[in-house]
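Suppose you are handed only these lines of text.
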Amino acid sequence: MIPILSPHAPLPELYREFLAQLSQEGFSGEISTDYATRLVSATDNSVYQLLPAAVAFPRHEGDIACALRLAHTETFRDIKLSPRGGGTGTNGQSLCDGVILDLSRHFRSILELNLAAGWVRVQPGVVLDQLNDYLKPHGVFFAPNLSPSSRATLGGMIATDACGKGSRIYGRTSDHLLTLRSVLLDGSTHESSRVTPAALEQLKEQASLVGEAYRVVDQIVTTRRGTIAKQFPRLQRSLTGYNLAQVYDDAGHFNLNYLLAGSEGTLAVVTEAKLKLTPIPKHKQLFAVRYAAFDAALRAANVLVRSEPGAIETVDDNILGLARQDVIWHSVAHLLDVSGEPQAVGVNLVEFESDDPAVVERKVLDLAATLDLERGQEGKATGYTIATRPEDIAALWALRKKGVGLLGNLAGDRRPVPFVEDTAVPPERLADYIRDFRAILDRHGLRYGMFGHVDVGCLHVRPALNLRDPLDGKRLREISDEVVTLVKSYGGVLWGEHGKGFRSEYSPIFFGPELYAELRKVKGVFDPYNQLNPGKLATPPTSGERLISIDSKKRGDFDREISKGARIKFETAVNCNGNGQCFDYHPDHVMCPSSKVTRDRIHSPKGRAGILREWLRLLSNGSFDAGAHRGTGTGGRHARSEALTDYSHQVYDAMNGCLACKACATQCPIRVDVPELRAEFLSLYHTRYRRPLKDHLTAGLEPLMTLLGRMPKLANWFMTRGWFKAALARWGGIVDSPLLSEKQLRAALAARGAPIYDLRSLRALDAEQKQKTVLIAQDVFTTFYESNVALAVYDVLSRLGLNVVFLPFRQNGKALHIKGFLERFARLVQKNSRFYSRVAELGIPIVGIEPAVTLTYRDEYPAAEARLAGKARHHDDKAGFRVQLLQEYLAEKLPELSPPQLGAAGSKAPLLLFGHCTERTAEVDSQKQWQAVFRAFGLKLEAQATGCCGMCGVFGHEAEHYAESRGVFELSWASRLAKQPAAQDSVLVPGHSCRSQVKRFAGFVPRHPIEALRDALGPGAES
Ligand SMILES: Cc1cc2nc3c(=O)[nH]c(=O)nc-3n(C[C@H](O)[C@H](O)[C@H](O)COP(=O)(O)OP(=O)(O)OC[C@H]3O[C@@H](n4cnc5c(N)ncnc54)[C@H](O)[C@@H]3O)c2cc1C
Ligand code: SF4
Ligand code: SF4
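From them, the structure of the protein bound to iron/sulfur cluster can be written out as follows.
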């Protein structure tokens, strides 16, 4: 039985008082001091872990002003605060042991768009992709780009002066700021923009913190002009935090925004930003230029840049190798792997863009001619592909964006980590610099991945370290020091892109002692008591506190305490590298519905992984080895209420919000598979705590159905009684339970004269007969709840001339897995594997109808077998048999069968496929396969890009999840369906859960694609 866990993380008395007072002062947002919420904000994408005292989620500017004003009072001068956006910083920028002001939850509005004047006004929690998706129909965009654009916020971008692809042309975030509205430490607000000298004088005259700030900054930049010019390298990626060099422009205007940008939350909290808009170039083409050596790719950048591209980005062999094993390769393989050419070891992506197609065409032809001329020469490109279709261009950039995440998949204990990740040198010196950089890493015997912006001399390098090993912790320090010396000698900077954070201790080296003293004055005027994101960038002159050190406590120092067995069993939770890809904002993207609907990071894969890691650490420290212990999960003796403060409950709550949609299992670059982790967790949690009745009901659904399926009318009579529904909701926690099909599948098949399964007679079939036979693996949903779908499968396949044999119904066990009854699940897996392996020996295809159930045989089954064998599961592991998805089978088989052409008989409205999210993510071709199937019948099927429907098996039927389930449905499905109000017939939905969800929230039952085919085949299809 697991022990009770009581983490020792007391809330300091001063913080307790501060938070209490804050609530009294009218702070209207949420304030969380629970351990789980604090833990989730204790990490970002860096190697560091720093537990905050509390996390506050302000709702409006007044809340921020309230918090800062209170902190500014004498009583609370030891209170520290740090703003936080997407938490994607790679150097611990937002980490702080005080109060985190998380703006990503409530500051997400795009406030005003003025196309004529070319600006948009936003709140700081708006995500970059959210903004650009909104702007796209207007033909404009916010130009500064960054890889984690799906989750990084504008506030974070401003505070780190972010930039990325295309920065050679478009510059950094600071170049696109018109006005910033900020709250200062005294609670006052200020709007900063470019001002004339006369306006500056007026500002300086103000007797306030603002006036003082203008006076001090102006004095510094005017008196230190010479030193600034000397100390700031003339680079596209020059010094930020604090960018004294650009406060005055060439026309003599003063702009405080250049100083606030890149200040990493150390001076003020930005609450609104008016941003410059840039027209989207109308024409684009992208070269993927391939090289036999990465060094050749780097050296080529100098030549490529002469062709005046918008961007040149490079990717090394490590990332290409990892991408080849990732889902992303499906979309780029045809552009990068070219037959007859050696596999690329380095790739340069070179993009041309303009409103004038002739300009793009000319540049493309010029570069192609150069590359053709050089082909075959030593050190030159081995080949290239020109992507012209928007989807190909997007796919190549997506590969580049996913690079960091993919690196986290390098095999072994050492994983690539960011700490010298974004150095920048003059581009013409990049190749030599990287040669010397590699020499450092080679001397330390380290592997690494490289990619980045070669056109501006900024290359991302992530050396692989195991920070659980103290020796590698020391190596991080040694390498950092060596790289600082190296990059300085090349006239470059350590932080060409990602800001300083915990690397702030190197600031004095790059700014020089004289200027660094001025930075401290800047900090001192805005934040005299070192309260705003303390230790970052600079400390106030009067403060005795030191800059934060790169030797600060790292995540690895905590993870080291997790037992080896637990690390293996919960491997992906330990390997989550925090890149935040699972915070994806887009409602139509499958990742991660619970995070989107709750806006609570606890309910994201990253949050769950982090909370679980801490659970494993606490268990290990309590001498309970979660790796060695196999939870029976049958139900412990204790009620949850007996130990309310047990940390395990917080883990349970985080896991309980997961829909088990499985998007994380494939879309996360590390394949953090939360449903798998949750199943393991639940099986241990319930060694101590009693299971709720609903778990037993869910786990018992399949066996129960074999009984109730024989008397569906009686079962439905009960299910439609008010008192029964109320009892089910009250005691069983189940709502909207679907009714059983009154047409029993077995009888209906018999009435159609369907053959009965008999292994011996199947064995007796000859090869030709086997070719014409297909075996259907039944599932609980289409056998007992929607027998019409299973019958449609029979009808369509028989009509195609196939001998369709339904295998006897067998429990599949997915529900057991979801609820963590792992021992029972494993026993079932063993039995089913024996059965299906025997059937598979026939050499006749086995086909499943319900996608989620079918995919269990590919995913949870191998995992259970690995578990039984006491091994870590590898994502390539397969079961000893294969059950095909219906469309997978049909797409393969139809070319042999000459299906009738149904174009004329089909619906007039286009048919729309609303795919099942688990299927779409686990089998990337599954939607294309449905389209191919319909094409074979002469019908057009349009695949809809939707997120999760919110039902996910039992999740949406659990009373406690009803609101969340509905919320997820409304995020994506509701609006998509609303666009087809008159054409419900055209909506085709392969998932049982999704059909149930549409029924209860959109008021109609959509057809399964196979029903649409059966209907189009017309009378007689029911053979
Ligand atoms: C995989 C990956 C790739 C990356 N690639 C790039 C890249 O291409 N280019 C790039 O520039 N960066 C990149 N980064 C780094 C990171 O994404 C950027 O620094 C980003 O700007 C951080 O935004 P965020 O919303 O996540 O901010 P956070 O990490 O939450 O915070 C960053 C800093 O901003 C401060 N801050 C946040 N909101 C406010 C506010 N309203 N007012 C004042 N201060 C605030 C915080 O205190 C903190 O100091 C990458 C990171 C990852 C994980
Ligand atoms: S769960 Fe996956 S996507 Fe999310 S932060 Fe961790 S590694 Fe990245
Ligand atoms: S399974 Fe789905 S809901 Fe659960 S963590 Fe993964 S993506 Fe989120």
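What can we learn from it? The pocket of flavin-adenine dinucleotide (ligand 1) is lined by residues 44-45, 82-90, 93-94, 103, 124, 146-148, 152-153, 155-157, 159-160, 162-164, 264-265, 269-270, 404, 497-499, 533, 579-580 (CB under 6 Å). Residues 470-489 form the longest helix (20 residues).
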